């Protein structure tokens, strides 16, 4: 097997399994661990994976996006802490946009049930989480349903969202960087997120540390558009400070 074929195999495995391990890859491809590390380094330089201690995980791009099911298995403890901290930022908001994705779904679960609240969302998962909350009114945006994320997109969703003035938007992203802002692989998803940004008075980004420095295809917001960024302590404090200099309060939990 040649170098390029092996690297394609590594990338396919990462995208299929959600992550790869150096030891297992070396055994599978019958090469030295150092060879695999060089392969991962090259794939990272091309923006296809992000390396971790002992392995790597795939970076979402225009040609690849993880499913909602896959997201429910990665960084779950961190996402749970992030969701609770994000929900604590609700303040006196009465109308809330909750984005698609697993972390926003956890935010929805953490929202208070003892006060009147109106939640707007494109996510069927978020709507389902809140369906039995007696004091919460759920407005589900119409549109084309994306099976991979179970959320609606296209002009039906954006037109409906454009008619609202929302107190607070909880927004997710596939990548966030100081240079390129917040990005997502799919233009249709990016349009919904961009409209949520325009419709909301306040905006909070919630995402795990692995999102930082990652860049996807479609830019929908700048870092300075948010009042707060909520992430986990996997983001170094020095890097958090650099993001805070662009405007938002960076909260690490």
TrEMBL record:
* Domain HTH deoR-type, chain residue ranges per copy: 3-58
Q: Which GO terms describe its molecular function?
A: DNA binding
Record-linked InterPro entries: Carb_Metab_HTH_regulators, DeoR-like_C, DeoR_HTH, NagB/RpiA_transferase-like, WH-like_DNA-bd_sf, WH_DNA-bd_sf
UniProt keywords, alphabetically: DNA-binding, Repressor, Transcription, Transcription regulation
What Gene3D superfamilies does this protein map onto?
Answer: Winged helix-like DNA-binding domain superfamily/Winged helix DNA-binding domain
**Coiled-coil segments:** none
Any Pfam family: HTH_DeoR
* Superkingdom of origin: Bacteria
What this chain does, per the entry, is described as: Repressor of the lactose catabolism operon. Galactose-6-phosphate is the inducer.
Q: What is this protein called?
A: Lactose phosphotransferase system repressor
Species source reads Streptomyces mutomycini
Lineage, broadest ranks? Bacteria, Bacillati, Actinomycetota, Actinomycetes, Kitasatosporales
